[in-house]
From TrEMBL:
Cross-referenced InterPro entries: Alkaline_phosphatase_core_sf, Sulfatase, Sulfatase_CS, Sulfatase_N
Keywords: Calcium, Hydrolase, Metal-binding, Signal
Gene3D superfamilies named among the record's database cross-references: 3.30.1120.10, Alkaline Phosphatase, subunit A
Record-given protein name: Arylsulfatase
Organism domain of life: Bacteria
Stated family: Belongs to the sulfatase family.
Pfam family for this entry, one: Sulfatase_C
């Protein structure tokens, strides 16, 4: 009798082993990166009057960060940090690359895609690249096995703000025809606003197809959405449906897209062990008025080193490990995604120095952990405009773009006139003054001294154009032959 019981126990144990092994398998990873979505653009971050129920559901099933930072408030620089784990200026990247830009992300830099590919992951990208406009500076040279998308933003095209062909004597009119790229091969032209209106749905279909095709092996999907970057465009199935204008319609389609990703994971039994990250490359481009989002009350927006430019939504869901409905108020930045995923997926960290921190302890809510307690606000080519440590932000004298002049804001797809403002040395307490309105440096001189010392560390290592310091630990971008 005893022998029979032990045989039964052994059989049950062996039958359970595959299920346990399946739970412990390397997780799939989906990084959904929005374009110019502000901190206050999602319903779960206070956005209104449109609704984002699928993104709300994603947040309810995972963790929502309230202090997440994009590395810089502009496209190419920000995207380089998400993929490489480095401050952009460490690797020679700045600004937003135009079609005739002379630099690109150096293919020698390791990316999330390349390190996970080396671990055996299938890797794919859908959407906006913006780190190099032609081979060998397209995604297939950076660890991605598949790519469907655009080489840069869909406003780099010979089309005016009203959707009509641009005057060929202007810079806009001289841009080349915008074309989708499949792998490394240019294809269909995106030549009108109606063409642009197909992008969100088409990309979503490509993304869900990638998930289905690779459901039986670990995969990394980078889904770089084109919206809500201007020019806003939405498919017929959502046009006029939000009751909140074109921006609300676009947000409604974005939310639908997230829902399609989630449904595909559910239908293929992948939800439990798939990490889904939803975030934005920078804050809203406020000069476009009602075609731009909102910062949730933070100062300024895209194109600045203020909170409204770089503090963005960040949601991460991983049912196997993250407590549903959790909120993290600790600081995290785009550079931290790579080392965190490398740790989770059992891959190898990049050989060259990066700036990211492993944030897994925050995802698991380990008590008394705080991997990142400081952040450097860089902008322009390599200007250190501020330092955050804990609740404090110290800004340095510089010139900044500003939206605080009426002429800087326009509506209905047309930009305002760019304006500038002089920034002084100032100390702000983000705990009590998240809008950065009250300078308290005279009251807290010891804090000013502490943050100034931190700034010197970044200046010596990465550089600072404002103080004319060249960093000792920087690496060059790739040079592009634009002929």
């Amino acid at each position: 009798m005893k022998k029979s019981i032990w045989i039964l126990v052994a059989v049950l144990f062996c039958s359970l082993r595959p299920a346990a092994q399946k739970q412990l398998a390397a997780p799939n990873v989906i990084l959904i990166l929005m374009d110019d979505m502000g901190y206050g653009d999602l319903e779960c971050y206070g956005g209104f009057p449109y609704h984002t129920p699928n993104i709300n559901k994603l947040a309810a099933g995972g963790m929502r960060f309230t202090n997440f930072y994009a590395a810089q408030a502009t496209c190419s620089a920000s995207r380089s940090a998400f993929l490489t784990g480095c401050y952009p200026n460490r690797i020679g990247v700045s600004g937003a690359f135009s079609p005739d830009n002379k630099i690109a992300l150096n293919p020698e830099e390791e990316t999330i895609a390349s390190v996970l590919k080396n671990k055996g992951y299938k890797t794919g990208m859908v959407g906006k690249w913006h780190l190099g406009q032609k081979p060998p500076f397209l995604p297939l040279s950076y660890g991605f096995e598949e790519f469907t998308g655009l080489p840069y933003s869909h406003d780099y095209w010979p089309v005016n703000f009203d959707g009509k062909p641009a005057d060929t004597t202007t810079q806009r009119g001289k841009w080349p025809t915008l074309r989708l790229i499949e792998g490394n091969t240019p294809g269909k032209a995106i030549a009108t606003l109606d063409d642009a209106a197909t992008l969100t749905t088409m990309y979503t279909e490509k993304a869900t197809a990638f998930i289905k095709k690779n459901k039986n092996q670990p995969f990394f999907l980078y889904f770089a959405q084109p919206m809500p970057h201007v020019p806003l465009a939405v498919s017929a199935k959502f046009k006029g449906k939000s009751g909140a204008g074109l921006f609300g319609d676009v947000m409604m389609e974005i939310d639908w897209s997230v829902g399609e990703i989630m449904k595909t994971l559910d239908a293929n039994g992948l939800t439990k062990n798939t990490i889904v990250i939803f975030t934005s490359d920078n804050g809203p481009w406020l000069t476009y008025g009602n075609h731009a989002g909102n910062t949730g009350g933070f100062r300024e927006g895209k194109g600045t080193a203020w909170e409204g430019g770089v503090r963005v939504p960040f949601i991460i869901r991983w049912p196997a490990q993250i407590v549903p409905g959790s909120i993290c108020n600790n600081m995290m930045a785009s550079m931290d995604i790579l080392p965190t995923l490398v740790n989770i997926c059992g891959a190898k960290q990049p050989a060259k120095k990066i700036d990211g921190m492993d944030m897994l302890s925050l995802l698991k809510q380990v008590p008394d952990t705080n991997p990142r307690d400081e952040f450097a606000y860089y902008y322009d080519r390599c200007s250190l405009k501020g330092i955050r440590k804990g609740q404090w932000v110290l800004t340095f004298p510089c010139v900044s773009q500003t939206y605080k002049k009426a002429s800087a804001i326009n509506n209905n797809g047309w930009p305002g006139q760019y304006a500038t403002d002089s920034v002084r040395l100032a100390l702000y307490d983000l705990r009590t003054d998240p809008g950065e309105t009250l300078d308290v440096k005279e009251k807290y001189p010891e804090v000013v001294k502490q943050l100034t010392a931190i700034a010197e560390k970044y200046r010596s290592e990465i550089g600072d154009d404002l103080t004319k310091q060249k960093g000792a630990e920087i690496r060059p971008a790739a040079k592009v032959d634009v002929k």
